[in-house]
Amino acid sequence: MNCDDMMNITKLHEVLKLRAGKNGLSNTVRWIYFADCLECIQSEYRIENYIHGGEFVILTNRSVTDDSEKLIPLVKQMHDYGISALGINEGQISADLSDYCNANDIPLFELPEKYPLIDLSQIICQRLMSEENDKNTGIYEILSHVDDKRVLDAYVNENLGRLLQADEIKNTSLCETLEKYLNNDCNAKKTAEVMFIHRNTLNYRLKKISEILECDFGSLDNCMRLKLAFSILKYRDSRK
Q1: Is the distance from CB of 29 to CB of 2 less than 8 angstroms?
Q2: Percentage of the chain lying above the pLDDT 90 cut
Q3: How would DSSP label each residue in 134-154?
Q4: Whole-number Å distance between alpha carbons of 193 and 85
Q5: pTM for this one?
Q6: Is the CB of residue 51 less than 8 Å from the CB of residue 33?
């Protein structure tokens, strides 16, 4: 789902009013994130712990939205980590914010102040989950017929085990990088754009991943094995 799709969800026709950043409507929405009450944890708040790319960020706390000196640097940081869109309550959108969103292709949506945000969250999350389920239905149907689930776990461990362990030990996100690379048809340029990282950064990560897995991504067979392992991992997680 991209921002244009989200804006056109029937239940949100009168909820999401685009106020800036129309050139970013093709941005992919991966999840919704509520970023209110940031001042309560400002001393320890680290953007990278909460923003991982593709989030529709909702920010309605007036102590932040009414202060451009606080708001614009915060949105800039979030943009650096790849947010897809921003939602602000009516009456809280400044000219500075609109200008920044227009300049950086960040769709800026105005929200009705009295609209329940929990409803907004449920509608968007249900749509995202529905799309994910539709995408995985075929492979999940096949995997559901494997009687001994230990076989599936063994396959994941054999193909991704060392990378999962490296991420856990070093607190890295190499598995996420590899999965996005595979999902983008092993196109490094497209993957770097989707992840909002420099091409050299991606190449460095892919080299590291290749070393850990002792795997050549130039081999179609290897890529297919790894993609299947990720599908199994998601399937097993969904059943836990």
Answers
A1: yes
A2: 56
A3: HHHHHHHHHHTT-S-HHHHHH
A4: 16
A5: 0.60
A6: yes
Contact in structure between 69 and 93 (CB atoms under 8 Å)? no
Under a CB-based contact definition with an 8 Å cutoff, are residues 92 and 60 in contact?
yes
Q: Which of 114, 120, 107, 118 is nearest to 91 (CA)?
A: 114
What pLDDT does residue 44 have? 57
Q: Tokens representing 98? A: 């609109």
pLDDT, position 40: 45
Give the tens place of pLDDT for each residue, 59-107. Answer: 988 888 888 888 999 999 999 989 999 999 999 999 999 999 999 999 9
Which element (helix H / strand E) includes 223?
helix 220-238
In total, the chain counts a number of residues equal to 240
35, 50 contact by CB (below 8 A): yes
6-19: pLDDT as tens digits: 999 999 999 999 99
**Phi, psi at residue 6, to the nearest 5°?**
-60, -45
Which listed CATH number (3.40.1190.10, 3.90.180.10, 3.40.1390.20, 3.40.1190.20) goes with 3-127? 3.40.1390.20
